[in-house]
Amino acid sequence: MNAHDEHAVYESPAREAAGTNLLGLSRTALERYFEARGERPFRAVQVLKWIHQQRIARFAAMTNLSKDLRARLEAEASVTPPEIVAVHESVDGTIKWLVRVAPDNCVEMVFIPDTPRGTLCISSQVGCALNCTFCATARQGFNRNLGSAEIIGQLWLARSMLESSSERSRTITNIVLMGMGEPLLNFDNVVEALELMLDDNAHGFARRRVTLSTAGVVPKIDALRQRCPVSLAVSLHAPNDRLRDELVPLNKHYPIRDLLAACRRYVAGDPREKVTFEYVMLSGVNDSRQHALELAALLADVPSKVNLIPFNPFPSSGYRRSPEHVIDAFRDVLLSRGIMTITRKTRGEDIDAACGQLAGVVQPRSQRMRARRAGRLAPAGAERLQS
Ligand code: SF4
Q1: Active-site residue (options: 83, 89, 108, 182)
Q2: I need a labelling partner for 75 at 20 to 30 A (CA). Which of 59, 60, 154, 235 fits?
Q3: 39 lines ligand 1 (CB under 6 A)
Q4: Each residue of 78-113: pLDDT tens digit?
Q5: 108 carries an active-site annotation
């Protein structure tokens, strides 16, 4: 597949993983897999390197495994990534892929080149249940969690497509879990995929170059610190509970005070660590000088940086983007209070790939079950792919 194709549309039948899909197994899980079959644990490292570094999906090509083992793996296992069904490339170089994760569901992933960085934004769930009012994904409803193979499979696919090009601007240097879904509500699968991103025998990313973004699932922030402390970003979007309850309904369960306490715990002990707070700029809603002052006071004792995100409209969102001079004034208040603040450049707007615009193709569970009962499951991604 040529990642440079504009608005290319691919239709192919969704693949089912045959046997155990080794793509999503961390090194520990792979060691267990081989031990259970009477093989030495070092096989795990060999296979990890073939799968993730060489991006080889056929066991027959893994030449440092014995013939018998290769044959056994061919029979019992597979390396099955999800499938790319459409590619859209923006005039600014941003690329968005529609990735099929089941016959009736697709998620989106986005590559944002910004030399020398290249950031890949990946999804963790099909849809999202958290209902943030300014988010296009929320309008799709929630269908299911992605498996670890479907999460790491996005990176696997993107690297296969981008890094076969000789252009340096297509190297992935950073990964953000900021696509569709709330990653901390799919904790185990996300952590297993994160482990593969960080493992030197797999993708080998530095911990600081992988960022997980959460709306604020407080107990899981602590659990993430224990299991896999990658960089943390928090979708804050409001400086007080009254407004945040409205914009990010999860706040009713985990109010700002508890959330910030978890953030402080997350970075405790490492003076270089900071939490990134994302703040979408909604005209007349959360963008006044008073809001900026409240936010600065709130973050005064949290090692933090703030990303101001100009709102990216989508149909019937009901919100407008704050004007540039308002965003600048908001930023200046934070800077004057010593809070490191940047305004995020809007990228990929012409292909609906900007922050908050990812929608994928999500069959709400109820609709899917009704369709199944009626024996007429919609063709994969039909509505979206034809648009
Ligand atoms: S902003 Fe994130 S957590 Fe909120 S609904 Fe959208 S995808 Fe879910």
Answers
A1: 108
A2: 154
A3: no
A4: 999 999 999 999 999 999 999 999 878 999 999 999
A5: yes
